[in-house]
Amino acid sequence: MRRLRFKADGRIVELRDGREFPLAPAEPTTAATAQPAVRDLRRRARLTQLEFAAKLGVPVETIRNWEQGKRAPRGPARALLAVIAHSPETVFAALASEPTAA
Known about the structure:
Blueprint: E1 4-6, E2 12-16, E3 19-22, H1 31-34, H2 38-44, H3 49-56, H4 60-68, H5 75-86, H6 88-96
Antiparallel strand pairs: 1-2, 2-3
C-alpha cells in the first residue's frame, strides 16, 4: 500500500524511505483547473451521488452542490478528491477500513 501525504500547498507526495516524491510535477493552477470534476470522478467510480457521499462521509447535499457548481470543495475535501482522481480504489479501501490504534 502506498503512503501519501497532502501538502499545505495542495501537492500530493508519496512517502518512501523517509523521503517525499511528488505524484505529479507541480504545475501552476488556475481557478478552472484547481477544482476537481466531482461528477466525472463519481461517474468513473460508477457510484450514485448517495453512494459517493456515503463513501466520503459527507452529506449527499454536499456532493450535489459540488456537482452543480453551487459550492466548490475546499481544503481536505479537495485534496481527497485529487487523490481519488489518481487512485480511487486505494482511497475507498482506506476509507472503508477501521482505523488502527497507535
